[in-house]
Amino acid sequence: MDFTTLKLAHQKTLDRIQAACQAAQRDPETVALLAVSKTRDAEAVEALATLGQRAFGENYVSEGVGKIQALANPDLIWHFIGPIQSNKTKLLAEHFDWVQTVDRLKLVKRLNDQRPSSAPQLNVLIQVNLDGEEQKAGCAPSEIADLAQAIHQAPRLRLRGLMAIPAVRQALHQQRAVFADLKAHFDQLQTQYPHIDTLSAGMSNDMEAAIAEGANLVRVGTALFGPRQKA
After folding, report:
1. What angle do CA 6, 227, 47 make, to 5 degrees?
2. Non-local CB neighbours of 142 within 8 Å, separated by 6+ positions
């Protein structure tokens, strides 16, 4: 993708977020864009960064760490948004600013123990499997409380909120219903942990529904970079 096309795609995505916020009577400044840069090269990330984009999401640990090290740009904020393998937690803890996909207690301990003491607390989201899909990562809603307590008690981690990747739904009202369910879980969690502030939901095909139901971080890849490339 050439720079002009990328610039237009970035602006169109920001315009979609603004329009969705206006429709939901929300301040566009309260919804942030996470550029999903998985399978894109460091040059694409760098190009988008020149347009003011700061937060990037990676699904594959080694690929993400490679870009973080290649760019070595302290202004960029790196989120891990893929399934977590236990043998990769050290790399996550050492290199990323956020991990959005914590879904079991074992990961909480490993990330906390492996986060360097010289680094800021690792920002953590609990991934919730709203549809109970066996092939998809994420904890059951009934497990949120125990995970939240463990993260909150881990000194090197900071609980920031919830994340979900619902099953694909075509109708807007169906999309909104599942995101409303996620928001209800977030609101319930916030009563116990008032500091949590991040609800990560919505992608290229359903960000409007997610924003309508309270998401404040949308994860967008295809609408920015075009069709996904093979890793």
Report:
1. 25
2. none
Which residue range forms the structural domain that includes residue 161?
A: 3-225
Q: Give the residue ranges of DSSP H helices in 96-214.
A: 105-114, 144-153, 172-192, 207-212
Please say if the pLDDT value at position 18 is more than 70.
yes
Q: CA torsion 55→59→151→76, rounded to 10°?
A: -20
Q: CA-to-CA distance for 224 and 197, rounded, in angstroms?
A: 25
Whether 231 is covered by a domain: the verdict is: no
Predicted TM-score of the model (pTM): 0.96
Tally of domains within the chain:
1
What are the structure tokens assigned to 181, written together? Answer: 């369910």
Residue 49 lies inside a defined structural domain of this protein: yes
Domain contains 189? yes
- Residue 182 β-bridge partners: none
pLDDT reported for residue 229:
56
CATH number for the domain spanning 43: value is 3.20.20.10
Query: What is the structure's pLDDT at 170?
Result: 87
List of E strands, the chain: 32-36, 55-58, 77-80, 98-102, 122-128, 157-164, 198-200, 217-220
Written as one letter, the residue type at 159 is: L
In a domain, 20, yes or no: yes
Helix/strand/coil percent split, the chain, to 5: 45, 20, 35
Between CA 96 and CA 65 the distance in angstroms is 8
Closest by CA to 13, choosing from 229, 226, 231, is: 226
Residue-wise pLDDT tens digits, 45-66: 999 999 999 999 999 999 999 9
